[in-house]
Target: Vanillate O-demethylase monooxygenase subunit
Amino acid sequence: MLIQDHVLLHQWHPVLLSRDLTEVPRSVEVLGEKLVVFRTSKGVHAFKDLCIHRGVPLSLGKIVEDQIVCPYHGWTYNSCGTCTRIPSMPKERAIPSKAKTVTYSCAEEFGFIWVCIGEPNLTNPTIGDGTFDDPSYSTVIMGPYEINAAGPRLIENFLDVSHLMYVHEGLLGDSEYSEISDYQVHQVNGTLVTDEIEVYQPDPDGRGHGVNSLYTYKVFNPLCCSFTKKIIGSDDYFDLYLIVLPVNEQQSNAFMMMERNYALNDPDKIFIDFQDLLIEQDKVIVENQKPELLPLDLQAELHLKCDRLSIAYRKMLQDKGLSFGTA
Ligand code: FES
Ligand code: CO
Model:
Protein backbone atom coordinates (compact mmCIF):
# COMPACT_ATOMS: atom_id res chain seq x y z
CA MET A 1 0.00 0.00 0.00
CA LEU A 2 2.74 2.44 0.96
CA ILE A 3 4.81 1.81 -2.13
CA GLN A 4 1.78 2.17 -4.42
CA ASP A 5 0.59 5.47 -3.06
CA HIS A 6 3.20 7.92 -4.23
CA VAL A 7 1.07 10.98 -3.53
CA LEU A 8 0.72 10.47 0.20
CA LEU A 9 4.11 8.83 0.62
CA HIS A 10 5.98 12.00 -0.37
CA GLN A 11 3.67 14.44 1.37
CA TRP A 12 4.17 16.05 4.79
CA HIS A 13 1.59 14.86 7.32
CA PRO A 14 0.81 16.49 10.68
CA VAL A 15 1.25 13.96 13.48
CA LEU A 16 1.02 15.98 16.71
CA LEU A 17 0.41 19.47 17.99
CA SER A 18 3.78 21.04 18.88
CA ARG A 19 2.64 21.62 22.43
CA ASP A 20 1.91 17.90 22.88
CA LEU A 21 5.51 16.91 22.12
CA THR A 22 7.43 17.48 25.35
CA GLU A 23 10.56 15.65 26.54
CA VAL A 24 8.71 12.32 26.34
CA PRO A 25 8.96 10.39 23.03
CA ARG A 26 5.59 9.76 21.35
CA SER A 27 4.44 6.93 19.13
CA VAL A 28 2.51 7.90 16.00
CA GLU A 29 1.31 6.03 12.92
CA VAL A 30 1.53 7.37 9.37
CA LEU A 31 0.16 5.35 6.44
CA GLY A 32 0.29 2.22 8.56
CA GLU A 33 3.94 2.79 9.57
CA LYS A 34 4.67 2.99 13.32
CA LEU A 35 7.06 5.84 14.19
CA VAL A 36 8.56 7.39 17.27
CA VAL A 37 8.68 11.18 17.31
CA PHE A 38 10.83 13.01 19.83
CA ARG A 39 12.32 16.38 20.64
CA THR A 40 15.94 17.26 21.43
CA SER A 41 17.82 20.56 21.62
CA LYS A 42 18.58 20.05 17.90
CA GLY A 43 14.90 19.94 16.87
CA VAL A 44 12.33 17.25 16.24
CA HIS A 45 13.03 13.75 14.91
CA ALA A 46 11.10 10.75 13.60
CA PHE A 47 12.43 7.16 13.54
CA LYS A 48 10.89 3.80 12.86
CA ASP A 49 9.45 2.84 16.23
CA LEU A 50 11.58 -0.25 16.63
CA CYS A 51 14.90 -0.88 18.35
CA ILE A 52 17.10 -2.86 15.97
CA HIS A 53 18.33 -5.09 18.80
CA ARG A 54 15.19 -6.96 19.90
CA GLY A 55 12.30 -5.07 18.35
CA VAL A 56 11.14 -3.01 21.33
CA PRO A 57 9.35 0.27 20.48
CA LEU A 58 11.71 3.17 21.06
CA SER A 59 8.67 5.23 22.04
CA LEU A 60 8.77 3.33 25.36
CA GLY A 61 12.25 4.74 25.95
CA LYS A 62 13.46 8.13 27.08
CA ILE A 63 15.60 11.02 25.96
CA VAL A 64 18.98 11.37 27.68
CA GLU A 65 21.36 14.12 26.57
CA ASP A 66 19.63 14.56 23.23
CA GLN A 67 19.67 10.85 22.40
CA ILE A 68 16.91 8.26 22.55
CA VAL A 69 17.56 5.30 24.83
CA CYS A 70 15.81 1.94 24.39
CA PRO A 71 14.15 0.80 27.62
CA TYR A 72 15.13 -2.88 27.21
CA HIS A 73 18.98 -2.96 27.17
CA GLY A 74 19.82 0.72 26.88
CA TRP A 75 20.98 0.91 23.27
CA THR A 76 21.25 4.62 22.58
CA TYR A 77 20.63 6.37 19.24
CA ASN A 78 21.68 9.88 18.29
CA SER A 79 19.46 12.23 16.28
CA CYS A 80 20.78 10.75 12.99
CA GLY A 81 19.58 7.30 14.08
CA THR A 82 23.11 5.96 14.64
CA CYS A 83 23.63 3.73 17.66
CA THR A 84 26.24 5.42 19.88
CA ARG A 85 26.13 3.19 22.95
CA ILE A 86 25.57 -0.50 23.66
CA PRO A 87 25.92 -0.77 27.45
CA SER A 88 26.37 -4.57 27.59
CA MET A 89 29.25 -4.59 25.08
CA PRO A 90 32.90 -4.35 26.30
CA LYS A 91 34.05 -0.75 25.89
CA GLU A 92 37.04 -1.62 23.67
CA ARG A 93 34.75 -3.16 21.03
CA ALA A 94 33.54 -0.86 18.27
CA ILE A 95 29.80 -0.47 17.77
CA PRO A 96 28.85 -2.33 14.56
CA SER A 97 28.43 0.12 11.68
CA LYS A 98 25.11 -1.57 10.82
CA ALA A 99 23.70 -0.42 14.16
CA LYS A 100 21.45 2.29 12.74
CA THR A 101 17.73 2.76 12.80
CA VAL A 102 15.49 4.03 9.98
CA THR A 103 14.93 7.80 10.11
CA TYR A 104 12.29 9.97 8.45
CA SER A 105 11.94 13.66 7.64
CA CYS A 106 10.44 15.56 10.57
CA ALA A 107 9.69 19.27 10.94
CA GLU A 108 7.94 21.71 13.24
CA GLU A 109 5.82 24.39 11.59
CA PHE A 110 2.59 26.35 12.29
CA GLY A 111 2.26 24.74 15.74
CA PHE A 112 2.31 21.17 14.40
CA ILE A 113 4.90 18.38 14.19
CA TRP A 114 5.07 17.03 10.62
CA VAL A 115 6.48 13.82 9.19
CA CYS A 116 7.13 12.62 5.65
CA ILE A 117 7.93 8.91 5.26
CA GLY A 118 9.08 9.25 1.63
CA GLU A 119 11.11 11.95 -0.13
CA PRO A 120 9.34 15.23 0.75
CA ASN A 121 7.81 16.82 -2.36
CA LEU A 122 8.10 20.24 -0.66
CA THR A 123 11.02 21.45 1.44
CA ASN A 124 8.72 22.66 4.20
CA PRO A 125 5.24 21.60 5.29
CA THR A 126 2.38 23.86 4.17
CA ILE A 127 -1.26 24.27 5.13
CA GLY A 128 -2.83 25.10 1.79
CA ASP A 129 -2.42 28.79 0.99
CA GLY A 130 -2.26 29.88 4.65
CA THR A 131 0.67 31.93 5.94
CA PHE A 132 -0.64 32.59 9.47
CA ASP A 133 1.81 35.42 9.98
CA ASP A 134 -0.53 38.43 9.98
CA PRO A 135 -0.78 39.77 13.55
CA SER A 136 -4.19 41.34 12.84
CA TYR A 137 -5.68 37.82 12.77
CA SER A 138 -6.08 35.35 15.56
CA THR A 139 -5.26 31.69 14.96
CA VAL A 140 -6.30 28.58 16.85
CA ILE A 141 -5.04 25.05 16.28
CA MET A 142 -7.28 22.09 17.01
CA GLY A 143 -6.91 18.34 17.15
CA PRO A 144 -6.05 15.63 16.85
CA TYR A 145 -9.59 14.33 16.43
CA GLU A 146 -9.25 10.55 16.19
CA ILE A 147 -11.77 9.20 13.71
CA ASN A 148 -12.33 5.62 12.55
CA ALA A 149 -12.71 6.45 8.87
CA ALA A 150 -10.52 6.79 5.79
CA GLY A 151 -8.95 10.23 5.26
CA PRO A 152 -10.78 11.07 2.00
CA ARG A 153 -14.12 10.43 3.78
CA LEU A 154 -13.24 13.19 6.29
CA ILE A 155 -12.24 15.63 3.59
CA GLU A 156 -15.37 14.99 1.55
CA ASN A 157 -17.55 15.48 4.64
CA PHE A 158 -15.88 18.85 5.30
CA LEU A 159 -16.58 19.89 1.69
CA ASP A 160 -20.22 18.78 1.80
CA VAL A 161 -22.37 21.92 2.14
CA SER A 162 -25.76 20.20 2.20
CA HIS A 163 -25.02 18.25 5.39
CA LEU A 164 -24.89 21.46 7.44
CA MET A 165 -28.72 21.64 7.62
CA TYR A 166 -29.03 18.09 8.94
CA VAL A 167 -25.95 16.95 10.83
CA HIS A 168 -25.44 20.42 12.35
CA GLU A 169 -29.09 21.50 12.43
CA GLY A 170 -29.76 24.38 14.79
CA LEU A 171 -26.10 25.46 14.63
CA LEU A 172 -24.72 25.62 11.09
CA GLY A 173 -27.98 25.09 9.21
CA ASP A 174 -31.76 24.83 9.32
CA SER A 175 -33.58 22.03 7.48
CA GLU A 176 -36.32 24.54 6.52
CA TYR A 177 -33.68 26.32 4.43
CA SER A 178 -31.79 23.41 2.95
CA GLU A 179 -31.87 24.27 -0.76
CA ILE A 180 -28.39 24.99 -2.11
CA SER A 181 -28.08 27.56 -4.89
CA ASP A 182 -26.04 26.47 -7.88
CA TYR A 183 -22.30 27.08 -7.76
CA GLN A 184 -19.29 26.18 -9.86
CA VAL A 185 -15.94 24.67 -8.98
CA HIS A 186 -12.85 26.22 -10.55
CA GLN A 187 -9.27 24.95 -10.86
CA VAL A 188 -6.79 27.66 -9.88
CA ASN A 189 -3.13 26.57 -10.01
CA GLY A 190 -4.03 23.01 -9.06
CA THR A 191 -6.38 24.10 -6.24
CA LEU A 192 -10.14 23.50 -6.46
CA VAL A 193 -12.04 26.67 -5.53
CA THR A 194 -15.82 27.12 -5.37
CA ASP A 195 -17.97 30.17 -5.94
CA GLU A 196 -19.47 31.62 -2.76
CA ILE A 197 -22.34 29.51 -1.42
CA GLU A 198 -24.92 31.16 0.82
CA VAL A 199 -26.19 29.32 3.89
CA TYR A 200 -28.60 30.43 6.61
CA GLN A 201 -27.08 29.57 9.98
CA PRO A 202 -29.15 29.71 13.19
CA ASP A 203 -26.17 29.69 15.59
CA PRO A 204 -22.86 29.34 13.74
CA ASP A 205 -20.52 30.01 16.65
CA GLY A 206 -22.46 28.94 19.72
CA ARG A 207 -23.44 32.51 20.66
CA GLY A 208 -27.10 32.19 19.70
CA HIS A 209 -27.27 34.64 16.74
CA GLY A 210 -28.63 33.62 13.33
CA VAL A 211 -26.76 34.90 10.26
CA ASN A 212 -26.45 34.36 6.53
CA SER A 213 -22.98 33.18 5.66
CA LEU A 214 -21.02 32.85 2.42
CA TYR A 215 -18.78 29.80 2.13
CA THR A 216 -15.87 29.52 -0.30
CA TYR A 217 -14.31 26.06 -0.27
CA LYS A 218 -10.81 25.14 -1.44
CA VAL A 219 -9.08 21.79 -1.89
CA PHE A 220 -5.29 22.00 -1.96
CA ASN A 221 -4.30 18.35 -1.99
CA PRO A 222 -5.96 14.99 -1.25
CA LEU A 223 -5.85 15.51 2.52
CA CYS A 224 -5.91 19.30 2.96
CA CYS A 225 -8.81 21.66 2.34
CA SER A 226 -10.35 24.83 3.77
CA PHE A 227 -13.27 27.15 3.67
CA THR A 228 -13.56 30.87 4.12
CA LYS A 229 -16.77 31.93 5.81
CA LYS A 230 -17.96 35.52 5.56
CA ILE A 231 -20.91 36.77 7.56
CA ILE A 232 -23.22 38.81 5.32
CA GLY A 233 -23.71 42.36 6.63
CA SER A 234 -20.53 42.32 8.69
CA ASP A 235 -16.78 42.41 8.05
CA ASP A 236 -16.27 39.28 10.12
CA TYR A 237 -14.84 36.24 8.47
CA PHE A 238 -12.69 33.26 9.18
CA ASP A 239 -10.74 30.55 7.40
CA LEU A 240 -10.86 26.99 8.66
CA TYR A 241 -8.26 24.54 7.36
CA LEU A 242 -8.56 20.79 7.73
CA ILE A 243 -5.44 18.65 7.43
CA VAL A 244 -5.94 14.91 7.78
CA LEU A 245 -3.29 12.47 8.96
CA PRO A 246 -3.80 9.11 7.23
CA VAL A 247 -3.02 6.85 10.22
CA ASN A 248 -3.97 3.79 8.17
CA GLU A 249 -6.80 3.00 5.77
CA GLN A 250 -9.37 2.70 8.57
CA GLN A 251 -8.22 5.48 10.89
CA SER A 252 -7.47 9.17 10.50
CA ASN A 253 -6.54 12.04 12.77
CA ALA A 254 -8.03 15.41 11.88
CA PHE A 255 -6.12 18.60 12.65
CA MET A 256 -7.52 22.07 12.12
CA MET A 257 -6.22 25.60 11.93
CA MET A 258 -8.63 28.53 12.27
CA GLU A 259 -7.73 32.09 11.37
CA ARG A 260 -10.22 34.88 12.15
CA ASN A 261 -10.41 38.67 11.97
CA TYR A 262 -12.88 39.15 14.86
CA ALA A 263 -13.08 38.33 18.58
CA LEU A 264 -9.31 38.53 18.54
CA ASN A 265 -8.91 38.31 22.29
CA ASP A 266 -11.47 35.61 22.99
CA PRO A 267 -9.94 32.52 24.56
CA ASP A 268 -9.12 29.66 22.19
CA LYS A 269 -11.24 27.34 24.32
CA ILE A 270 -14.49 28.86 23.01
CA PHE A 271 -13.59 27.94 19.42
CA ILE A 272 -12.14 24.56 20.34
CA ASP A 273 -15.20 23.53 22.39
CA PHE A 274 -17.51 24.48 19.55
CA GLN A 275 -15.42 22.57 17.01
CA ASP A 276 -15.34 19.55 19.35
CA LEU A 277 -19.14 19.51 19.26
CA LEU A 278 -19.29 19.75 15.45
CA ILE A 279 -16.73 16.97 15.06
CA GLU A 280 -18.75 14.70 17.38
CA GLN A 281 -21.74 15.23 15.08
CA ASP A 282 -19.71 14.48 11.91
CA LYS A 283 -17.96 11.46 13.46
CA VAL A 284 -21.22 9.45 13.70
CA ILE A 285 -21.73 9.91 9.98
CA VAL A 286 -18.24 9.32 8.57
CA GLU A 287 -17.54 6.33 10.82
CA ASN A 288 -20.63 4.59 9.47
CA GLN A 289 -20.53 5.42 5.75
CA LYS A 290 -20.37 2.56 3.27
CA PRO A 291 -18.24 1.68 1.52
CA GLU A 292 -15.58 2.58 4.06
CA LEU A 293 -13.19 3.68 1.31
CA LEU A 294 -14.33 6.64 -0.79
CA PRO A 295 -15.64 5.34 -4.15
CA LEU A 296 -13.94 7.14 -7.05
CA ASP A 297 -16.19 5.56 -9.68
CA LEU A 298 -18.75 8.32 -10.26
CA GLN A 299 -21.33 5.77 -11.36
CA ALA A 300 -21.23 4.14 -7.93
CA GLU A 301 -23.48 6.72 -6.24
CA LEU A 302 -26.10 9.32 -7.15
CA HIS A 303 -25.03 12.95 -7.30
CA LEU A 304 -26.87 16.27 -7.27
CA LYS A 305 -25.75 19.68 -8.52
CA CYS A 306 -24.93 20.67 -4.95
CA ASP A 307 -22.47 17.74 -4.86
CA ARG A 308 -20.32 19.38 -7.53
CA LEU A 309 -17.48 19.87 -5.10
CA SER A 310 -17.51 16.22 -3.99
CA ILE A 311 -17.44 15.17 -7.63
CA ALA A 312 -14.53 17.52 -8.37
CA TYR A 313 -12.70 16.18 -5.30
CA ARG A 314 -13.20 12.56 -6.38
CA LYS A 315 -11.93 13.44 -9.86
CA MET A 316 -8.89 15.15 -8.35
CA LEU A 317 -8.07 11.97 -6.40
CA GLN A 318 -8.49 9.92 -9.54
CA ASP A 319 -6.23 12.26 -11.56
CA LYS A 320 -3.53 12.10 -8.90
CA GLY A 321 -3.76 8.30 -8.83
CA LEU A 322 -4.57 8.22 -5.12
CA SER A 323 -5.16 4.67 -3.94
CA PHE A 324 -4.99 5.04 -0.16
CA GLY A 325 -8.42 5.38 1.45
CA THR A 326 -10.27 5.11 -1.86
CA ALA A 327 -12.08 2.32 -3.67
FE1 FES B 1 16.43 -2.24 22.45
FE2 FES B 1 17.67 -4.43 23.34
S1 FES B 1 15.75 -4.25 22.43
S2 FES B 1 18.28 -2.39 23.50
CO1 CO C 1 -19.87 18.65 9.45
In short: Residues 157, 163, 167-168, 278, 282 surround cobalt (II) ion (ligand 2) (CB under 6 Å). The helical segments are 6-9, 151-158, 268-286, 308-320.
